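Make up an example, fold above all:
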Amino acid sequence: MTGTKVRHILDTMADMFPDAHCELNHSNPFELVIAVLLSAQCTDETVNKVTKDLFQKYKRPEDYIAVPLEELEQDIRRIGLFRNKAKHIQKLCHLLIEKYNGEVPHEHAQLVELPGVGRKTANVVVSNAFGVPAIAVDTHVERVSKRLGLAAKDDSVLEVEKKLMRKVPKNEWTETHHRLIFFGRYHCKAQNPACELCPLLDNCREGKQRMKITAGRKTMG
């Protein structure tokens, strides 16, 4: 894909979603880590409903380990995989206290060592909490990147991330990550994407195929 095409995609998404941002509610890096950890296989909307009360009850890592695991599980039970996530949160809080004085580390390499924190979570935290350019590849980013030809269909999540880092200017990594998510969440959905309204249809082989099938059905009908 040429640099001109990439620029066209980035500019179009910027026009469509100029205010794209992290939709997980948080007021500091620690709350963001907890929110992103909870968001695995769960919608941001559900996480925000749970953290509304959670962040009132638990302010610091010490608060999360001061209660029995069962109590924390009950506090997050509306979240998918809540038992595993409760364990991860308590282990993560122990480690933050033991190694980092209760503070969230700024370095990507230190973040990925925390329980329940993978590469995607670390990228979200460094970019949103500490202003370090990063592209976190979630299901929306992966789907949109592959549909628009920014990555190949069989690329792994890491390969998608590396290709986006090569193609997108570094100073645009974080905002591009948010715009790809908004584009995937509100326009190019996994099911029923808005192909007929899409200004980037020319870049999307899957979308063009979908439109052909739709047109064929209308003709037959």
About this structure: The first helix runs from residue 3 to 16. Residues 74 and 189 are 32 Å apart (CA to CA).
